[in-house]
Inverse folding.
């Protein structure tokens, strides 16, 4: 094994979290090394015309994604059944390469409702101490919205987020999300253009129901934009190739466009690509990480990189894998409910209702990743849950973000699957279809957790992460409720055909995309007995180890995770600067 | 329109012409035993002889029949074979997809429920072949002839039964083969960029009104909100910008 000189700060993962932590350090002139398992993206066909618009290569075959043949995950829905690998990664899509999964995101840029960070307290106060079932280990995060607000604000400015404020310093703003927590500043850019589908939805939701829909905050830049670092975004072309794609117009806020090119010019910053991290060397008695071990994929050589500080900023399940494999922190035990690593693995409960309008031109190909119109009346705890039998909720939304014809084409129920009638239905409905969707929360369940699979290994011989997961009763009841609400709106929109609701079924479905918003496993919290990292994201058992990403979420809300991931990473970067000045336990 | 090199009227002259086009003056002896020893043949142009790389002649004939049943020539489009759908499927099977790119193929193997997705040790090319032969043999047993011998209406009905799982007792996994491998390949063949060999002439993009490339719509978002988009009548593909 090759042993390198010690580095003051090694970050595992060159994605959104790693890039933002590195930015906060590099701007202070502090040295930082990022290890990324993939390569650079911006010379290849994935980010150039015409090859960027290739649905088969990038969307269907997942050209930017983690290669399941190298590393995947296993699933069992209960502890009584054997696990099976996700032999193809379809249900969620970890990225690889500089920028990580944030290269191929859609750009939905929600802040979370403020009460989410003390959700346990909130629900107990509102519904009584017995209102949270024993099998739902909801817990407070140990951080508050007000602490995060400056980091949210900075993230929005760095990524040029487009939107309309709904609550400016406590004053509700027309046109924005009236449920959002107070923000100090308006979004740095005005909202994207509304789509025809979004306009139809907005009109119905407002006039027929009195709801207050608003434009989704979007990291798709509606105009050329220069961020505080002088980094530029181009204007979005509404081409419908956001999710699963790199943006060829540099109009999507992504780390590979906004962070890493800037970082590469900072003294003391180093990015090493094609370095697959195998593990952390943990000195248990000292409570310190001594080194990061990685495989140099260009040489095949194993490398030991000693470090003074390590930051885990990999994909959700990668962070959990490295802690579990390194024996760092006590693994979660579902039988007793004790232990922490792997705990509170959550996902996102989603539903959709297709709509078909004979006489309306919805032109699904005109859209950006986040050109979506959203309503928050039934998200999280924005509504009274007394007597409903579940907690949580979601947003209801409509719009078009892609009309790509292989994967985004919808047909009315009952259409034959091939033949002349199938072709005719495609001709009749392609330009005239849309969907009303629900993106719902997923609260922790005692039996939903991550551990290492004893039977399956990756291409490097390391155990795969095993997801112990299903959508349990709380999420099923929540989706019953949300589907009913969404269906009422859908039915009032004047469609020629309203399709059936697609939603989580009796068994967790791995074959179709359900979103990449997997969270938890290395959760943050104020109590070392119930969390992996402190509210400052410092590992309870290893003072010089920090973990960041959606893996620290104590539960998942009905809002998308990315902006919160960004805010936590920026805050961690600031905390690390303090830590370097004065090492020790951060408070 | 494209002609098939593997249907029953393939003759010696066609074969020699194809081989000499591919290999110049030197025709490798092995090609004589297998007119479709694919690696020697050039990629098919949008117009010209149909060539196959992964599928043997009998296999390709069944696939041609399948795509012609699933996409018959009618007022909407030419036949599936004419649109290159069989060739698209062959190319995908011959390339990275067929060889198992992005597919975790380590054991142990544990058959699961449909929601677990693909759980077999075979790569997609081998599973495709297995299913294709299984379909053909099951047709012989149940319908008295191979799949290519069936009338279009009978073949269509067979596929409906297969897709619904009605033939799984006869041929294990046939519905999974159809629904999770053949059918997605068929849809991809119809709607992927023509650069991959299917969707010739952008026929399916024209049919539905998908404008294709370059998709720069910043102004169109307003101009064509709620109105037909003119580019839908004349879609552009990767090749049009290359």
């Amino acid at each position: 094994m090759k042993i390198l000189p010690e580095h003051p700060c090694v970050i595992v993962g060159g994605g959104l979290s790693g890039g933002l932590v590195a930015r906060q350090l590099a701007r202070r002139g502090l040295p930082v090394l990022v290890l990324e398992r993939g390569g650079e993206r911006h010379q290849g066909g994935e980010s150039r015309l015409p090859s960027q618009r290739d649905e088969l290569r990038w969307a269907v075959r997942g050209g930017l994604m983690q290669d399941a043949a190298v590393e995947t995950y296993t699933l069992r829905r209960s502890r009584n059944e054997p696990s099976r690998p996700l032999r193809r990664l379809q249900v969620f899509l970890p990225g690889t390469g500089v920028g990580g999964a944030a290269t191929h995101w859609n750009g939905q840029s929600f802040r979370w409702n403020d009460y989410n960070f003390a959700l346990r307290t909130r629900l107990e106060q509102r519904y009584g101490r017995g209102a949270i079932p024993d099998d739902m280990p909801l817990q407070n995060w140990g951080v508050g919205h007000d602490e995060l607000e400056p980091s949210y604000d900075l993230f929005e400015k760095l990524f040029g987020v487009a939107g309309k404020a709904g609550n400016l310093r406590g004053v509700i703003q027309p046109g924005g999300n009236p449920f959002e927590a107070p923000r100090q500043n308006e979004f740095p850019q005005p909202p994207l253009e509304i789509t025809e589908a979004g306009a139809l939805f907005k009109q119905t939701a407002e006039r027929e129901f009195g709801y207050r829909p608003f434009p989704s905050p979007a990291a798709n830049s509606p105009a050329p934009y220069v961020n505080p670092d002088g980094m530029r975004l181009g204007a979005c072309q509404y081409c419908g190739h956001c999710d699963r794609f790199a943006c060829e117009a540099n109009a999507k806020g992504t780390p590979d466009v906004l962070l890493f090119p800037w970082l590469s010019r900072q003294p003391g910053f180093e990015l090493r690509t094609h370095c697959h991290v195998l593990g952390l060397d943990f000195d248990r008695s000292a409570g310190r990480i001594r080194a990061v071990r990685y495989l140099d994929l260009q040489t095949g050589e194993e490398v030991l990189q000693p470090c003074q500080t390590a930051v885990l900023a990999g994909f959700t399940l990668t962070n959990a894998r490295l802690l579990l494999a390194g024996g760092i922190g006590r693994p979660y035990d579902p039988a007793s409910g004790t232990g922490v690593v792997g705990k509170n693995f959550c996902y996102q409960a989603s539903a959709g209702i297709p709509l078909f309008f004979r006489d309306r031109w919805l032109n699904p190909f005109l859209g950006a990743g986040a050109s979506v119109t959203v309503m928050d009346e039934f998200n999280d705890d924005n509504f009274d849950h007394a007597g409903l039998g579940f907690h949580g909720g979601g947003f209801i939304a409509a719009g078009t973000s892609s009309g790509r014809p292989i994967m985004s084409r919808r047909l009315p129920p009952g259409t034959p699957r091939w033949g002349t009638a199938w072709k005719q239905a495609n001709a009749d409905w392609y330009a005239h279809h849309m969907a009303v969707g629900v993106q719902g929360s997923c609260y922790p369940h005692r039996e939903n957790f991550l551990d290492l699979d004893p039977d399956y290994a990756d291409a490097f011989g390391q155990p795969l992460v095993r997801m112990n997961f299903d959508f349990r009763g709380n999420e099923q009841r929540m989706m019953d409720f949300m589907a009913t609400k969404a269906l009422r709106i859908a039915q009032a929109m004047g469609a020629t055909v309203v399709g059936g609701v697609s939603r989580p079924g009796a068994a967790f479905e791995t074959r179709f995309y359900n979103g990449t918003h997997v969270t938890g496993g290395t959760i943050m919290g104020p109590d070392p007995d119930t969390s992996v990292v402190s509210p400052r994201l410092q590992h309870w058992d290893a003072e010089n180890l920090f973990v960041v990403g959606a893996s620290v979420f104590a539960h998942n809300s009905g809002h998308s995770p990315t902006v919160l991931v960004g805010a936590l990473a920026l805050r961690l970067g600031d905390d690390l600067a303090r830590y370097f000045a004065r090492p020790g336990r951060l408070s | 329109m494209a002609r098939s090199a593997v249907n029953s009227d393939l003759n010696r002259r066609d074969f020699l012409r194809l081989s000499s086009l591919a290999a110049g003056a030197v025709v490798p002896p092995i090609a004589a035993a297998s007119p479709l020893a694919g690696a020697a043949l050039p990629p098919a142009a949008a117009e010209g002889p149909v060539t196959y790389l992964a599928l043997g002649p009998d296999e390709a004939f069944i696939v041609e029949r399948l795509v012609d049943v699933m996409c018959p020539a009618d007022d909407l489009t030419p036949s599936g074979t004419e649109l290159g759908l069989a060739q698209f499927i062959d190319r995908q099977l011959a390339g990275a997809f067929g060889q198992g790119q992005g597919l975790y193929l380590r054991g142990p193997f544990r058959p699961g429920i449909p929601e677990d997705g693909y759980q077999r040790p075979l790569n997609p090319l081998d599973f495709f072949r297995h299913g294709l032969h299984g379909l053909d043999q099951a047709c012989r047993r149940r319908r008295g002839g191979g799949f290519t011998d069936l009338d279009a209406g009978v073949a269509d009905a067979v596929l409906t039964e297969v897709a619904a799982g009605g033939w799984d007792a006869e041929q294990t996994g046939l519905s999974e083969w159809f629904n999770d491998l053949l059918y997605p390949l068929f849809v991809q063949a119809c709607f992927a960029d023509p650069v991959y060999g299917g969707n010739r002439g952008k026929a399916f993009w024209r049919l539905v009104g998908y404008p294709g490339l370059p998709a720069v719509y910043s102004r169109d978002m307003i101009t064509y909100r709620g109105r037909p988009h003119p580019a839908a009548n004349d879609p552009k593909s990767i090749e049009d910008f290359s």
